[in-house]
Give the backbone structure.
Amino acid sequence: MIGPYVLPDDVFDALAAGEGGRPAVLLLRRARRSRNLLLLRRALDGPCGGAAEAAAGLLAAVERVAPEAARSVIDGPAFGTWAARTLRDCPAHGRRGCAGRDLAALTVLAAVRAAHPARITVPVRDGRLALPGLGTVTGLGEVPEALVVVEAAADAEGMPGTSAGNCRVRVRVLTADGERVLPRDPSRPGHGWQPVAVLDARHRGLTLRLPLETAAPELPALETASAGPAAWRDLLRQAWELLVENHPRRAEELAAGLNGIVPLPAPARGVASATSRHAFGTVLTSWPADPERLALTLLHEFQHSKLSALTDLVTLYEPGGGPRLYAPWRPDPRPPGGLLQGIYAHLGDLAFWQERSGSRHGPAQADAAWRLAQTRAHVERGLTEAAAHVRLTDLGTRFLERLARTVRGGDRDGAGAGGGSGGERLARAVARVQAGDEAVWRLRWAAADDAGTERLAALWRAGRPAGPLPAQDVRPATGAVAGPGPEFGRWAARQRGAERARPAREAADAVLAAPDRAQGWAELAAAAAEEDRPGADVLRARTELVRDLCARLTARQTARPPGTAPPGPPDPLALAAWPAEPGVGPVPSGGGPVADAARTPGPASPGSPDPLALAAWLAGPAVGTDRSGGGAAADEEGGPGRDPQARGAHPARGSGHVGRGEAGPASGQACGDGLAVPAESGSAEAPRAPARSPGPDPAADEGPVAPAPPGPGGGFDAGAEPGGGGAPGQKTGVSMSQNARSPLAKTSATG
């Protein structure tokens, strides 16, 4: 099963564009199977090897007589996550014993599908014997394990496939308390037996068969009739018809790559969905309620699986760069791999809403057009963030450039935009929400350097140019992370019907009146961007700096000797001209120029500092431009603001390069005894065997994690972050589209 894999240039480019087709998916699936086998070999060589040895022997015996039955288990939803968990837990093994023992439960499915006789000991937890792909035996009491016996008739033949049904096989479960016999057809329920239901859908000759996996360890059971197998089956058939009719090429990919649905508990609102990087083709989702949402979920989550498998073959970015980055679709900071995963997954959303916005009418069309515009803005902003803060390899640069072409192609189509004034109004509304969301995100996660902020305060009081902005720090997220809150949600919802933003002057006054109210800063950032104010980029991308500087200056100015009369408000015209002349401070109301701090100590800017003026001052020519002449200050009707972080060219607009230049054409190249990469990668690597050190939880949330040193021997790490091509460093595993508790990942995440 392990052999060389060549990734041709045209396949790489097709995957980068968001699709790839059935042949590309089958290649990724075979490559992931090889990776799973390498993980199995590593587990057998490690501390858990003894606990997994008997099960591995049974799997090898089944592979010799019924290869497809063995492969269906190795490709299945539970195998990769078992291997990753085993490597992560050893040598500690955890409180419930060695994770290597759980391989036995997986191999029972292979024996049943192959009608191969077997006797294997399987762990029992909380009175439940879980057999992934088959079902769950309940009511076993306090016994720690059970002996599972698979008996087959002499003329039995294997029946590999998605279904576990095989009437020629008898399965017995023996414990110290007695014996249970499963139904002759294990796909049917029985006393103390809950089978894994198989969902099937067929339309226009294209078939999708998926187990509704409820038997894998630590996964939830179905609890309500509304989300029972019959309801799931009916919903999948409707979603499949929608996909085959409107997205036939992507439907072919799903038919070739999807291998299971894992039901998740429903969140308080919306739908929770996820993908584990170790379970290729498996979608974790709560009850979607309507076929459209299920279709969108399948498209989105399978994009994650494709990119995770692709990064087994190629390296898209190098360690380093920004460890915690902004992704507009997530409420928490993202590592580089998580950012790339989100960008790629949203290509599925983009295709979905592009089709829906062109085929709907009335309010449904308006909603689809809004979602299309918002998704495109998300991808574009993600591309900008990746270009500025991710250390892309040549292949990573090429990957994002092909991806950006897909986004630009959608722009040319204009689907859902409506064109004319309607399209412009929609674009403005989306831009307002995006600017406000980023401002709120920065207030929540980013912190300005105290010493740098104090330096800026001194320069402002002295009437001098700001100079380079101080360093920033984005705090890591821990545990479940909620969104920006209902207040922001209500404000964002109002923007869909608003013709224009609140005037920036009014928004600035509201911020001064309530500087701790996040929505006020969101409105100010949105208004400044829409009015093209100087410093609009600073208000959006360094909101925390403007707020902290404003608070610091206000605190200094309010500390006046007793009996001192409060000064009048600053003169807007003086602020507009200041600090065009070096060394000259702002002009108080009714007063003349204030000498610089060397001659006139004390605050030079009376009253609460105006956040619009502060932002324009911070965005002065010192940031990314020539400082000659000292620059001009904020004019109330001034010109465009300057980029506060000197970002790279926007890859979704224009012809600029992403990252460090564009790779030239090259042919696919075989790599040693395993995975191959196109020649642009610069080196030929075998399918990288996992490093010996297990590292952090590979099935954990793809959220920010501190970089870890590479394990001995380098190469592929089982827990490496998606997008990194297995390079040692930050670890990641699950991406989720909304807040949810994922029992498979044992963490909360959003994607």
Remarks:
- The mean pLDDT is 77.
- The first strand starts at residue 118 and ends at 123.
- Residues 362-389 form the longest helix (28 residues).
- Residues 142 and 191 are 19 Å apart (CA to CA).
